[in-house]
Amino acid sequence: MIDKTDLTTNDALTLEITVGGSGNIELVSAPQVKFPSDFETYDPKVTTNINKSGSGVSGTKKFDFLAIPRTAGDFTIQPVKFCFFNPKDKQYHVFQTKAYNIHVKKGKGSGMAYSTTDQQGIHILGRDIRHIKEGTSDLRPAGDFLFGTTLYYVLLALPVILLLLVLLFWSTLKKRKANVSLVKNRKAQKIARSRLTIAQKMKKQGNDRTFYDEIALALWGYISDKFNLQKANLSMDSVKELLEQKQVAPETIQAFMDTLNSIEYARFAPGDTKGKMENIYTEALHAIMQAEKSLK
């Protein structure tokens, strides 16, 4: 029900809706009331009365809607609908109130009449909501904050710039490594032959140990530079496997492996030293030249 249908502007009216019955009344939510747009409304005041007995739980829940018309005129509050489920017949039912016609007259001191609105002074209607602040506000220009400034855009672009720099550095490093590997690959034979030249000088000087060391370095170094591998990671088996993967002729692979074995044998075997050294030098030179032809 409604407490009044004839009132003046800025005067309050109360629409009371009570829901009663058996069941969990506390779970009933406030119904939707459509007040005219010229009415100022507030959240309803809720009053709950629960009765518990041996037959169950029953009670009422009352909703008091407060509304204040701000303009004069004739208005209608549409019927309020309430929907609930009845477990007895297992169906939904809808109850609704009647429509209320409200007549609002212009109150004292009000500059409003019907749909015409005039500017009026501020009236303190309550302390719970602050009025919009009038006059100049303490607003600062956009430049005083980080957003929209040069620093803001620099910081925004910084991650992208850093990412590009990292990619550039990584690409440059990769190219450098590739270039170093390419240079070592191309110069592998030249460096090996220069070691053979040193070995030849050691042979003439009668320095057998250094001769064999240089021959071994020439062969192992050739494979290391050609495949861009550390000498410490090479072995007889790994060298053979690398050459086979590159489809080097089997006889060339065998000659290469035989030369490496001959070096180790000649270091400790007695006999014609000069003859052995000359043969090993020739075998090493031939093995490197044949491997180079296959690996180009």
What general outline do the C-alpha atoms trace? rod-shaped
Helical segment count: 6
In whole angstroms, the N-to-C terminal distance is 103 Å
Q: Kindly identify the CATH topology of the largest domain.
A: Four Helix Bundle (Hemerythrin (Met), subunit A)
Rg, Å, rounded: 51 Å
Number of strand segments? 9
Q: Tell me about the biggest sheet? A: 4 strands, antiparallel
Number of domains: 2
Q: Which percent range fits the helix content?
A: 40-55%
* Pattern of helices and strands: EEEEEEEEEHHHHHH
Look at the structure and give the CATH class of the largest domain: Mainly Alpha
Low-confidence stretches: 111-121
SS-derived structural category: alpha+beta
Mean pLDDT comes to 83
CATH architecture descriptor text of the largest domain: Up-down Bundle
| Strand-residue proportion | 15-25%
